[in-house]
């Protein structure tokens, strides 16, 4: 396995894998000790596309799960052995036997963490391999706990992180980022961010992938990792002339990470440089995976005034329009990212064409948009509304209006869990097609929700209130629209009575929109 690119070494390994599988089906693994099993999995993992290696590793996974259930025989494995097993199994995350074995090792790691020595016997590479492997199954509760235990171990070693190689720090951050809501993961990532700042002059020793993993991971906790990410952006700027060697995923992860700090000069400079590289690859954008394209669009949209990001967006929009069938593979979140990004440049013909292609995809999914979140529906409608003259945009928005009505009829829930921004974006979008019965009905349903939140619309921003009044005013004959607007009027009066601020926080345009809307109900 030290020469995986040599055909002879590959053929020899495949033969061994076949023999391992034969023994698994006949005499079992009783003659194999823990080190034997670890070495086999570690070796087979160098050929993840080979069926024999996959099947043999799955068989060993079954044996590991079996050992875990026999008086905790996993304690016979050395810490490095457990880490190597997880690293190997992670090459086939879709294999149920590998997943079960990984889960069993996660339970063992948590057991070890509870002992006096905790996880001190694991090397930096071992901890890194565990986190990276467990991260393939973020939905598994026992693995989440194991990663939290490892994060606590990292925090405990905070003063010794200077001993961790670059690769291990990057892999740890990448893994912890799979659970951004966890305090332990955040605490450990912030500790690593401090180490990255301390190594700011040594970032030339990090590979392109390391930098991308760090930026992407740090972006999950932007409040505490700004300085570290700015340092990484500075290193990317120094490599601006070598961006053609960066992988597609690396470019997308960097942009996604830097976009959390659009006001920082270095993150801006680095993103502009990457945008130039995306433009240079204009004919090869199919190399980006769907999620990577969506992340690029979402990231570049944070700098709409930059010529380079606009040109990169035009290139991506062209790719989306050219390969419209590809949109079938985009989930709701990624479609929302695309339309939201393209809508930042509504005057660009390429953006319009891409938006129309996305609208066609939404209209074709019909029942499938039931799986979209409230926020995704609102972002899509807000985007389509930038081009109301397009028939497909109208059809897609009408389909979303139907889905909003379906949710409005849900017993005991209705539209109560829609955020203020989502309600405002939906009403604003539907109002671009006031003649459409479905749009009107959906807007009326949301007006009913606003009217029912009397006392709660204090949480709506000034802009939300103005947008809602403007939207409801397109259908002044609707009683619910009147009731909702009256409720908003009362909230404006409440804010006007605040002696320290009054209405001074409203923009001139916001005040004008409110007056224009209120004027529909004299």
Shape: elongated
Give the helix level as a range of percent. Answer: 55-70%
What is the element string, with H for helices and E for strands? HHHHHHHHHHHHHHHHHHHHHHHH
Low-confidence segments, given as residue ranges, are none
Mean pLDDT rating: 94
- Strand coverage percent: under 5%
Distance linking N and C termini: 81 Å
The radius of gyration over CA amounts to: 27 Å
The main β sheet shows up as: none
Total beta strands: 0
Structural class: mainly alpha
The total of helices stands at 24
Question: Which SSEs are present, and which pair or pack?
Answer:
Elements: H1 7-25, H2 34-44, H3 51-69, H4 79-89, H5 96-113, H6 124-134, H7 141-156, H8 166-176, H9 183-198, H10 208-218, H11 226-238, H12 248-258, H13 265-280, H14 290-300, H15 307-322, H16 332-342, H17 349-365, H18 374-384, H19 391-408, H20 420-430, H21 437-452, H22 462-472, H23 479-496, H24 508-518
Helix pairs in contact: 1-3, 2-3, 2-4, 3-5, 4-5, 4-6, 5-7, 6-7, 6-8, 7-9, 8-9, 8-10, 9-11, 10-11, 10-12, 11-13, 12-13, 12-14, 13-15, 14-15, 14-16, 15-17, 16-17, 16-18, 17-19, 18-19, 18-20, 19-21, 20-21, 20-22, 21-23, 22-23, 22-24
Description:
The protein is mainly α. Helices cover 64% and strands 0% of the residues. It contains 24 helices and no strands. The chain is elongated. The mean pLDDT is 94.
Summarize the structure.
By secondary structure, this protein is an all-alpha fold. The protein is built from 24 helices and no strands.
Output the keywords:
mainly alpha; 522 residues
